[in-house]
Specification:
CATH topology: TATA-Binding Protein
Number of helices: 3
Shape: elongated
CATH class: Alpha Beta
Helix content: 25-40%
């Protein structure tokens, strides 16, 4: 009887630890419209899109403008955008895989770039998917 009680308590404890630590684990969501999945880890959204890098960067810049954000720097040739949206710093990095395939990373952080904002990064990702 004592062993059974010990196993139950251990199971509950391990389950509680898993729940408490789950914010540190990557979370996978289905990317609607992208045809793939994207991952969110510590305020970063990563995905591969079937669009040219320049198209993605231009679409992201227009989304920032629609959201009344400020473009701090942008480069079509490097595939990078740095902007300020809703008081937070947002980064887009677009790496060309093929002519029509691009790997993107959208990262959102508070102005001092310490605390990640997964919600804003995911919101901008969904707007980008709708736009391209």
């Amino acid at each position: 009887m004592l062993k059974n009680n010990y196993k139950t308590r251990l199971s509950i404890f391990l389950f509680a630890v898993l729940i408490m630590c789950s914010s540190c684990l990557p979370i996978l969501f289905g990317g609607s419209g992208a045809g793939t999945t994207y991952s969110i880890v510590a305020g970063k959204v990563k995905d591969r899109l079937d669009s040219p890098r320049d198209t993605i960067v231009e679409a992201f810049i227009s989304i920032i403008e629609e959201e009344k954000g400020e473009i701090l720097s942008a480069s079509l040739t490097d595939g990078k955008v740095r902007a300020k949206v809703k008081g937070k710093i947002v980064y887009l990095t677009a790496k060309k895989i093929t002519e029509k395939s691009t790997e993107i990373t959208i990262q959102a952080r508070l102005e001092f770039e310490v605390v990640p904002d997964s919600e804003l990064a995911q919101y901008l990702y969904k707007k980008l998917i709708e736009k391209i």
